[in-house]
Amino acid sequence: MDALQQRSVPFSAITNTSSCGTPSESGDSHQIKFTYKEGCTPTACACVILAILFVSLGAAAGVYFGLQFLDLGKRTERVYKGSFVIVGGDKYTSTLADTLSEEFQEKAQAYKARLDKLYNNSVYKNIYLQSEILALNKKDDDKNLIVHFNLHLSPDQSGLSAADLYVVLSEEVMRSRTGVFRDIKIDQDSIQIQERKPPVDDVLDRWVPRRQYPGYVEGLTTTPSSALPRIVPRQCSSLEVPFCNSLPYNTTSYPNIVGHNNISEVMSDIVMFRQILDFECYPLAQEFVCQLLQPDCEDDDIIMPCKDFCEDFWKSCKKLLPKKVSDKIDCSKFPKFSGYGTCHQKPGCSNELRALGMSDRLCDGVVDCKDSSDETNCDYCKPGQFICGDRQCVDKDRRCDLREDCLNGVDERNCMSISPSNWGTKESFYSYSSSGFLLYSDSGENARICSDNLNYSLPETRRDVILQSLAVSTCSALNFEVTENVEMRKDVNAVETDYVQLLDPLASSITFVQVSCDSQNVVYVKCGASACGLRPAHSARVARSYALNLPEGKFGAIHGQWPWHVALFKNGEYACDATLVSDDWILTSTACFESDPHAVWVARIGIIRLSSKSPFDQESRITGMVKSPIGSGVLSILKLEQSINGSDYVRPSCLPSHNYSLAGIPCNTLRWSVRKNHLFEVKLTITGNDCTDETLNNTSSRQKLICAVESDVMEDEECQGDEAEGSPLLCNINDKWYILGVSNQKVTCPSSNKQRRYHHTFEHVQWIRHTLESLRVH
């Protein structure tokens, strides 16, 4: 990685501030500025070496800041646990529950002998030691016998992984090369093998059949999909379907997405799939069908079409599909686009905009396509450049080069970020995780931070201070509230990963240098919840200049300006608005759901155009609704199926901590324009903090509301758009944005002097916080 050169990074490059400080030995500082200390004396170094030796032997009983150091001592063997289910030739009996019983001992010895014979005749016989049977049980009322075992191997394994041991067992089940299982039938899909290691949460080297659909992450168990059969390790091969030669890749893998195991099976159904194309039910049918038949293969794994691509095809063609095909397509199992390599997006988004008569959206400064293709062939932007998001692009190697090239400075943000263990280092810049591996960016290239020199060259207390400073500064720069944990972990899922490490951890400035990081020990950080009410990607200067160029007129939103705003879609159609108030909950009007609470509801967060899908916004299904018991229950909170990814473009608004006096406080609401479905801000003047809801006939039921009128009145103004149920009253208090009210009514083409009414959120805040805490998954 040529771009990752030795570079001294000033503190401001990470924390976006110019102040510096020296972290104390307690690690309380939130800044990265290390004071140089002299190296240890020979006596002190000897003491440190002895201390590390004692720790590796288990004499020490804990680690400062919860750090977890992997493989510090010499391991005498490596142990892999596994299991499989027998569906024929043997079955479970109740006496097997007692491991001291004679039946258990005999059967365990028999299965141990089978496994020993298998691996002693494999290519790994020189490093294989022995097996042991841990348990023989069953699942619920099922009589099928489950065999749980350990495999012991010598530590010198030359890169051996759980996947290699899985292949040996799976091949034997399929082909009976040695005949050790000839008298029994094993469910191949049930085979699981995982290396036993010190606990490292979600990064264990577990190996089950690879499956590409949402929810599957190497190291986690997942409910299998009927549309995507479990398979043995894949191998990439050349494309062979004649009408799929135009695909943007050259290799595929079997089984494909619709269950074909080889090209012969594909060709036997080829007429049926050609007929689907002849229906012309969807302009991109050929691209989608070809990706079903010949999915992309990368690193011996398939890359599926993205979920929204599947949904568009399904919506247009489902009534014409043969049952044999429709039964194999379940769009809920297709992955959502979240960055490089996650899935293949719908091709030709910019061409589709032209076909739909939306050419005015090309090169207008707003990204309408997930692949950004509508903004990458413009006078100001070329393919492959980094998009600043404001009619400006810069070369990718100018991102994180210590100089602001974008007007809004976004090219120098998040140069230290966090990526989950299952992400590569080529993931999208537009989001990051609250927990995962530290990621350093330099001149457009990304690398994980290797901890080898921290682990072996520093006193433990000093090392902990440095790690804590890195973690706290990164969490703070990414606008998370707190830092919960920092430790060293094994990067077991590394694929095409680059690494850097601190050149001199004790120097007064940070200098990273590229390393190979043979141990793959990297820095893992866990931050708390996203800090509320901040707009890190927003630039008021850019927003004002952009608003002047919009054909609708005034105050058109730009990406990142209202990162907490949510559009709710019912069965695919826009219904109303909401506001993100935590990483996995949104606040809206109960009236939005009164018509059809059992429909399929989807939240799109951070969007500024209803009919566009940009890489900046995020999407999640609604899985639950809780109605407020306060007053007449006009407000509800909705649970997102999955928490948001950290982002400068999607983050929560603040809830009020007390009943603010709104006199002189700048407040806005948001509405959608008529012609382009674009989000607009409406500046408001508060006219009353306790006006009455006149729509309620019963005087005793009337609630005190916040009333406001539009501040900027324009004479003879045309209809600017609608303010939906759930639209927020947003106010800026001490440089943070709070949602102080929620509208319970849809207002169509409101006049500038029309009074708006908002229900106080403060009255519901205690209930909201209690509910979120009660339903939090720990």
Can you characterise this structure?
- With 778 residues, the chain is α+β, with helices and mostly antiparallel strands.
- The protein folds into four domains: 78-196, SEA domain (Alpha-Beta Plaits, 2-Layer Sandwich), CATH 3.30.70.960; 236-347, Frizzled cysteine-rich domain; 416-530, Mac-2 Binding Protein; 537-693 and 702-774, Thrombin, subunit H (Beta Barrel), CATH 2.40.10.10.
- Mean pLDDT is 76; it is low at 8-74, 198-232 and 695-701.
Oligomer: single chain
Please compute the radius of gyration using only Cα atoms. 29 Å
How many strand segments? 33
Content of β-strand: 15-25%
- CATH architecture level-2 label of the largest domain: Beta Barrel
| N/C terminus separation | 40 Å
Number of domains: 4
Choose one word for the global shape.
globular
Describe the sheet with the most strands. 8 strands, mixed
**Helical segment count:** 14
* Parts with pLDDT < 50 across at least 5 consecutive residues: 8-74, 198-232, 695-701
Q: What is the third-level CATH name, the topology of the largest domain?
A: Thrombin, subunit H
CATH superfamily of the largest domain: Trypsin-like serine proteases
> What share of the residues lie within helices?
10-25%
Summarize the structure.
With 778 residues, this protein is an alpha+beta fold.
List the helices and strands and how they pair.
Blueprint: E1 7-9, H1 12-15, H2 42-56, E2 78-88, H3 102-120, E3 128-137, E4 145-153, H4 162-175, E5 185-195, E6 206-207, E7 237-238, E8 251-252, H5 263-268, H6 270-278, H7 285-293, E9 296-298, E10 301-303, H8 307-317, H9 323-326, H10 349-355, E11 386-387, E12 393-394, E13 416-419, E14 435-442, E15 445-449, H11 452-457, H12 460-477, E16 483-490, E17 499-502, E18 510-515, E19 521-527, H13 540-548, E20 565-570, E21 573-580, E22 585-589, E23 601-605, E24 618-627, E25 635-640, E26 667-672, E27 679-692, E28 704-710, E29 722-723, E30 728-733, E31 736-742, E32 747-748, E33 756-760, H14 762-774
